[in-house]
Amino acid sequence: MRELNRLGLTSVCDAGGGFQNYPDDYAVISELHQRGELSLRIAYNLFTQNKGGEKADFQRWIGMTRPGSGDDYYKVNGAGEMLVFSAADFEDFLEPRPDLPTSLEPELKEVVTLLAQNRWPFRLHATYEESINRFLNVFEEVNREVPLQGLHWFFDHCETISDRSLERVKALGGGIAIQHRMAFQGEYFVNRYGAATAARTPPVRRMLEMGLPVGAGTDATRVANYNPWNSLYWLVAGKTVGGLSLYPEKNCLSREEALRLYTQGSAWFSRDEEVKGVIKPGQLADLIVLSDDYFSVPEEKIKSLHSVLTLLGGKPVWAEAEFKDHAPPELPVTPDWSPVAKFGGYGAPHFLRSERSVSFSPWASPKVMRRSGVQAEPVPLSQLWGSGCDCFAF
Ligand SMILES: [Zn+2]
Fold first, then answer.
1. Which residues, by Cβ under 5 Å, contact ligand 1, an ion?
2. Which residues, including other chains, have CB under 8 Å from residue 35's CB and lie 6 or more apart?
3. Cis omega (within 30 of 0) on the bond before 335?
């Protein structure tokens, strides 16, 4: 959380993830919330981990909690991004597009009907138009029986969504949460599908022209980096992190448009439009002071912006430079015997930088510290890794 505060984030919308079981794996974050130690507002979606038993998961959770349960710091946002395993069209552009099984339609219909009947907002991971078309067939069928309007349902990603599908999303009252996955996989996408297809992946400009709710994010941490400034750079410059230009000028956003997607735009996706996204009376007192002027720095410098002061509910949760006197206390180091507690930073590289008088070669019989009861003692590295190969990233 502190790292995200450093990058200027005050709220996240969590799409769940593999092996993130509700409620057991949420106990740590719930305890931090109860202790008043969250430095980030979290709206979390419930992601089924139960292939073949997805509906049972959602039935159980509908009986346990409800969307909006919690407070401004920590609340249930709805279901997804995994609703049924048969609808997961993973985004590895090194591989051919996956064809989803025919069990998708009946399984997805059961779950979405259940969610709509209970007025649970939902989100669904969706990469390719071919899958999105099938998802929309299901949603339209459900909508004829249980209206989806007003539910704030949405797709995540939508790299190759067609204009026709955008119209169908709009007609059903949905939104689209976009992320900078193409900044990392753009080269692979172009190799497989060509530059012309890549030119609208996703078609953000078209979404905005149509008046669809659009929120921007990162899809961290498995698919992309969590740094919002990389994502804003991608929206503005239209380039991958490797420097490949993906989009024509008209599909790139102005800096203001990109920032609006990250603030006001994303607030729709956690139903927080009344309290987040704008600095004005009545909204939560979350704001940041940046290391440089986002609107005037050279485009390439957008990627290295960060916050020098982050306020959450009016309280500093990150401060440095001229604001460092307002910084919250250092976080405790766990485990307490970690070298980080003594030397600071992230371990060996910092150690090497800050202790220049010490001659230290990681390749020539290095010594590292190992815990021994309450005392730390130096041991040869080879004893830690046994007699096998000592190759590792240092
Ligand atoms: Zn996803």
1. 81, 125, 156
2. none
3. yes
Report how far ligand 1's centroid is from the alpha carbon of 185 (Å).
Answer: 14
CA of 3 to the centre of ligand 1 (A): 23
**How sure is the predictor about 134, in pLDDT bands with cuts at 50, 70 and 90?**
very high
Q: Enter the tokens of residue 146.
A: 């249980």
Taking each helix axis from N to C end, the angle separating 104-117 and 129-145, rounded to the nearest 10 degrees, works out to 50
What amino acid is encoded at 189 in this protein?
Answer: F
The pLDDT tens digits for 236-252 are 999 999 999 999 999 99
Q: What is the pLDDT of residue 176?
A: 98
In this model, does residue 286 exceed pLDDT 80? yes
Handedness of CA 348, 349, 351, 352 (dihedral sign): positive
Expressed in angstroms and rounded, the spacing between residue 11 Cα and the centre of ligand 1 is 19
- Sheet strands (E) in 15-98: 41-46, 74-79
Assess whether pLDDT exceeds 50 at residue 115.
yes
Q: If you measure from the C-alpha of residue 145 to the centroid of ligand 1, how many angstroms do you get, rounded to a whole number? A: 27
CA distance 271 to 177: 13
pLDDT surpassing 50 at residue 58: yes
Domain range annotation of the chain? 2-317, 339-384
Half-sphere exposure of 266 (CA within 13 A, CB side): 23
C-alpha of residue 194 to centroid of ligand 1, in Å: 23
Between the CA of 314 and the centroid of ligand 1 the distance, in Å, is 33
Q: Does domain 2-317 have CATH number 3.40.50.360?
A: no
The pTM of this model reads: 0.86
- The one-letter code for the residue type at 179 is Q
pLDDT of 84 > 70? The answer is yes
E strands within the chain? 11-14, 41-46, 74-79, 123-126, 154-157, 175-179, 214-217, 287-290, 307-312, 315-319, 367-372, 375-380
Alpha-carbon gap, residue 48 to 155, rounded angstroms: 16
